[in-house]
Write the structure tokens for this entry.
Amino acid sequence: MAVLALSAAVVIGASGGIGAALHEALVEEAAYARIHALSRSGAAPIDITDEASIAAAAARIATGPAPSLVILATGLLHDAERGPEKSYREFDPAWLEQVLRVNAVGPALVAKHLLPLMPKQGRTVFAVLSARIGSISDNRLGGWYGYRMAKAALNQLVRTLSIEEKRRNDRSIVVGLHPGTVDTALSKPFQGNVRPGTLFTPDRAASQLLDVIDGLTVTDSGKLFDFEGKEVAP
């Protein structure tokens, strides 16, 4: 990764498995003047479901170097009581709203407050962790309604943001990233179905994602890429 000593990087969700690994990898690369590691439980807390919290975090970031890299490494698939739906008979409005709020509305609010802080010139990357499951054309198994809906909405958000952001900075890149199945709390209940050799450690996932980010060009903006840098169909 090229040295960007006068700019900052932001990792939101830095207390999670992938987020923490991304933060550690960026620190090791030492390519940024400052790295903001934000999470709900961190010293500088952020709650992406609370716009006031996001605005406060943006105000703190604005006091230092402008961020040329923002990575949103957050997501909700299940909690202690509820998980992805296998059938429409399991629809719970409150749960659907929560999944959409965390996976799609939250990232939209983060974009609202952080994109204006990014430079108007030069290469910038605003990346969100999405998932192949949000691809409509790739949906062959059904189920997991709320998560599929939320990630599809997130992928549309990425596409739409990329169009508007290009008007502000023609070298901006807004992308979704599919990290694969990573050994974290989010995937833990479903790891029994993972093929051997396809369950990644957080460190490996972070390294792969940063390699993908490093290889992106402006023509990639608005798209979803997997951990190998291959575009995922909408």
